[in-house]
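Tokens for chain A. Residues wanted.
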């Protein structure tokens, strides 16, 4: 079997670390050629020592110097070190990488992921924001270059598996499942008072801070609806969300004859990662098999639109099209960061997003500059709304400041 080169954007995050675990479990099938990270220099140095990539990228020159010092301390061979967005682009387009795992968090992953697609790489996509912000650009670039975009998000990975062998005209709808997050059974008042620590207590998944807060507001499902549109070619009226607290059914499709096909699996991202890396083949997994007899029962319920208005905001942006999803994502990222800084309440996040969407005049996505400009405008407006909200009232509970780092 021929060894394939792999690059990872976001190697020190949850998806990146799990990708490296999958690579190890697959033996000699993959060779790590490049790693992109941000500020977690100590972990990146350990990864360099273990996997010996040719190239790495870090966020700043200071991080680069710290990495060199750490590599020398642990007596590891130094790779070539690059910096910032340009460095991530080099990682994404490394000539030895046939597959690029896009796992950087947020809009920072947009340009490197787009460049990987333009270069014709297979992209194992965990950075949903790339498709939310610039789905039209991504899909257009993939058509030109022949790149494959394979989803790593467990929900879209499940849909990809369910859709194998089905004809588009025979599929009535896609059903994305949601755990419901830490406030699935909470009241609106409890969400108003929620601390960062309470919002970070996800019931089933261990994830980075930003995506965990998105799960608490269910914005992650809203973003996933937009992502599914671009991955699978379904419209807003053909994609639904259902809350499934056990997180065993990762998503479903309904066919026109009423049949429902679901993908079930353990709550472990290594399954989806391995599927994306080895598709169309399947490999024996290191994971324990799902024990159906121990599941007991599976529950499903509709999401509450009153407690989770972010879902409706995402559908609104999706239907508006153009740059509206980019504005939605930028406002959400800005608001989530403000909540993690304890400047606003959890329930202020959808308020910020709604204000930004109200003011945003969506325009067609013709090029990357248009998307970047819409992103910047929305972030600025969101910052202004956040300043207004934070000065008007005390944020929830003054507790020790949380870190944004994974």
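Reply:
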């Amino acid at each position: 079997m021929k060894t394939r080169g792999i690059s990872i954007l976001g190697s020190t995050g949850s998806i990146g670390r799990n990708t490296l675990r999958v690579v190890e479990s697959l033996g000699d099938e993959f060779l790590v050629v490049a790693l992109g990270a941000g500020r977690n220099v100590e972990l990146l140095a350990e990864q360099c020592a273990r996997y010996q990539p040719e190239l790495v990228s870090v966020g700043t020159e200071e991080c680069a110097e710290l990495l060199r010092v750490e590599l020398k301390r642990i007596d590891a061979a130094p790779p070539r070190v690059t910096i910032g967005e340009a460095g991530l682009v080099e990682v994404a387009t490394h000539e030895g990488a046939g597959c690029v795992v896009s796992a950087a968090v947020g809009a920072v992953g947009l340009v490197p992921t787009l460049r990987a697609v333009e270069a014709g790489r297979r992209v194992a996509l965990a950075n949903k924001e790339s498709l939310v912000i610039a789905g039209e650009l991504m899909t257009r670039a993939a058509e030109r270059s022949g790149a494959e975009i394979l989803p790593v998000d467990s929900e879209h990975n499940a849909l990809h598996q369910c859709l194998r062998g089905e004809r588009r005209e025979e599929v009535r709808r896609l059903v994305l499942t949601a755990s419901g997050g830490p406030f699935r059974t909470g009241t609106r008042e409890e969400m108003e008072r929620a601390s960062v620590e309470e919002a970070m207590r996800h019931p089933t998944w261990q994830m980075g801070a930003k995506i965990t807060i998105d799960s608490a507001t269910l914005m992650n499902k809203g973003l996933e609806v937009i992502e599914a549109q671009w991955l699978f070619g379904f419209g807003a009226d053909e994609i639904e969300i259902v809350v499934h607290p056990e997180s065993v059914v990762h998503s479903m499709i309904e066919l026109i004859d009423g049949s429902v096909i679901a993908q079930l699996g353990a709550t472990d991202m290594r399954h989806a990662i391995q599927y994306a890396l080895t598709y169309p083949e399947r490999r024996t997994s290191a994971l324990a098999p799902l024990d159906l007899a121990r599941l007991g029962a599976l529950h499903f319920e509709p999401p509450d639109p009153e407690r989770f208005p972010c879902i409706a905001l995402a559908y609104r942006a999706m239907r508006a099209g153009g740059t509206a999803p980019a504005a939605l994502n930028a406002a959400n990222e800005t608001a989530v960061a403000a909540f993690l800084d304890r400047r606003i309440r959890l329930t202020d996040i959808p308020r910020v997003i709604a204000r930004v969407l109200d003011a945003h005049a969506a325009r067609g996505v013709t090029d990357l500059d248009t998307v970047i400009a819409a992103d910047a405008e929305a972030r600025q407006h969101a910052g202004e709304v956040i300043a207004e909200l934070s000065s008007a009232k005390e944020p929830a509970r003054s507790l020790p400041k949380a870190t944004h780092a994974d």
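Residues 368-392 form the longest helix (25 residues). Residues 396-406 have pLDDT under 50 and may be disordered.
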